[in-house]
Amino acid sequence: MKNKPHLVKLKKDKNYAWCECSESKNQPFCDGSHSKLKQKFDTIVDALVEKNLISNAFELQRLIEQSDKNPVLFKAEKDVEVSLCGCKKSDNVPFCSGEHVNI
Ligand code: FES
Asked: Count of CB atoms within 10 A of residue 31's CB?
C-alpha cells in the first residue's frame, strides 16, 4: 500500500478490480490475495483460542478489518488516464479523492 494515488491508463469497456484489502502485489488492482486473509484469520483465531496468544492481538485486529474486504469491480467507459486510490482511504473508491493528504 502506498499513501498516494496510482496514475493508470484504463481501456474502454475493460473490466477492472481495484484492491480494497491492501494485500495485492499488483496494486492498485486485485490479485486475489484477499481470499488468503480469511484462511490466515482462522489460523490465528485457532491459535489464540488454543494457546491464549495475546501478542497476536494487533495482527488479529488488522485481519478482522481486512478479511471482509473484497475488490471493487468497475468498468472503464472510455480510454482514459485516472488516479486510482493507493492509500485505501478514499471517499470515492476506486478513485483518489485526495484523502491521502490527511494520512
Ligand atoms: S491515494 Fe488519494 S485518496 Fe487514496
From this structure: 13
Summarize pLDDT for 48-98 with one digit per residue, the tens.
Answer: 777 766 555 676 777 677 767 788 999 999 999 999 999 999 999 999 999
C-alpha 67 to ligand 1 mean position (Å): 21
Report whether 42 contacts 57 (CB < 8 A): no
20 Cβ inside 6 Å of ligand 1 = no
Indicate whether residue 90 lines ligand 1 (CB < 6 A).
yes
Cis? peptide before 28, omega within 30° of 0: yes
pLDDT in tens, 12-61: 999 999 999 888 999 999 999 888 877 787 787 777 777 766 555 676 77
What is the number of the ligand 1 atom nearest to the C-alpha of 3?
1
Q: What is the pTM of this model?
A: 0.68
CB of 97 closer than 6 angstroms to any ligand 1 atom: yes
